[in-house]
Each structure stands twice: as structure tokens, then as C-alpha cells.
Amino acid sequence: MPETVFSKIIKREIPAAIIYEDDLALAFRDVNPQAPVHFLVIPKKPLINLADAQDEDQALLGHLLLVANKVAAQEGLKGFRLVTNNGAEAGQTVFHLHIHVLGGRSLNWPPG
């Protein structure tokens, strides 16, 4: 997988407002927030997007959702939305799997 801004954040080569870290995942505030609370949850394992995940990544994917929930609670969110873009056609601009967690206001439906 080519190096991305997220892989550089994992390696601490560029700064980020990190709000959670464990052996498998990292969560940090989005630099272009779309809601009062907007952070990203990423795996430390290099995965381009959800379509690149394999059966062996099942536990990691579940872990990312649990981290999103844990950090949302830490941030005081009672309701929140998770968004994962898969590919350029879906709006993915950083090709390292990431989950957007948005909250802190009423969110409209449908999105996009």
C-alpha cells in the first residue's frame, strides 16, 4: 500500500489531534470537521478501503467499530453517524481505510 497521510500520522511523522490509541487502531480529530464532533478511526494495519479487507480482518473491523463507539462515548455523544467511503467514486480521498464519526448536532437523512 502506498504511504498516505494516515500512515504518516501512525508513524508520528506528521501531527494529529489523537484522542485514542491502542495496538490496532488510532482515532484523531478530522482537520476539516463536518459536524461539531468529527473524528476518524483508522486501523494501524494498512488497508486501502473496506473492499480490500479479507476474512482475516473480521476481528479488526469489529474492533474499529467498538473503538468508534468507545470514543463517541468519551466525547459525550449520545447519537452519532459512522461513514466509510469505499473508493474515489464514493468520495474516498485518503486511501487508507477510515471511519468518520460525526455527531454533536442533528444529522440529516439522506446524506450525500
Characterize the largest beta sheet: strand count, sense, and whether it forms a barrel: 5 strands, antiparallel
Structural class: alpha+beta
Query: Helical proportion?
Result: 10-25%
Please name the fourth-level CATH homologous superfamily: HIT-like
Strand content: 15-25%
Order of strands, widest sheet: 1-2-3-5-4
Describe the structure in your own words.
The structure is a single chain. With 112 residues, this protein is an alpha+beta fold. The protein has one domain: HIT-like (HIT family, subunit A). 21% of the residues lie in helices and 22% in strands. It contains 2 helices and 5 strands. It has helices spanning 5-10, 58-74; strands at residues 18-21, 25-29, 37-43, 80-83, 99-103. A 5-stranded antiparallel sheet has the order 1-2-3-5-4, covered by helices on one side. β2 (25-29) and β3 form a beta hairpin. The N and C termini lie far apart (28 Å). Residues 5-112 form the HIT domain. The active site is at 98 (tele-amp-histidine intermediate). This is Histidine triad nucleotide-binding protein. InterPro entries: Histidine_triad_CS (IPR019808), Histidine_triad_HIT (IPR001310), HIT-like (IPR011146), HIT-like_sf (IPR036265). GO terms for molecular function: catalytic activity.
Write the SSE topology:
Blueprint lengths: L4 H6 L7 E4 L3 E5 L7 E7 L14 H17 L5 E4 L15 E5 L9
Antiparallel strand pairs: 1-2, 2-3, 3-5, 4-5
